[in-house]
Design goal:
four-stranded antiparallel β-sheet
């Protein structure tokens, strides 16, 4: 009988967004259909079929640029006027 070896790893990014501390955990779990994923303590998450986008998007979620912060601020203001 051939044993199957599952691969699993975790990477963590610490940062801030929306004025609160954030911890983003990137994982690889090859038992899932899209094995690369990240989740944040703010309850946001994304999954990817390849490893090329998981680390940059997790880093940017924990360390938003000024443009990202401006876009989030504008979206909050637009939702409040509705």
């Amino acid at each position: 009988m051939k044993l199957e070896k599952n691969e699993f790893w975790v990477g963590t990014f610490h940062g801030r967004h929306d004025g609160a501390p954030a911890k983003v955990t990137a994982t690889l779990d090859d038992t899932r259909p899209e094995p690369y994923a990240w989740t944040c303590t703010c309850s946001a998450s994304r999954s990817f079929p390849t490893k090329h986008d998981v680390f940059p998007t997790a880093w940017r979620h924990a360390h938003p640029t000024r443009f990202d912060r401006l876009r989030a601020w504008a979206a909050r203001g637009f939702r409040a006027t509705r």
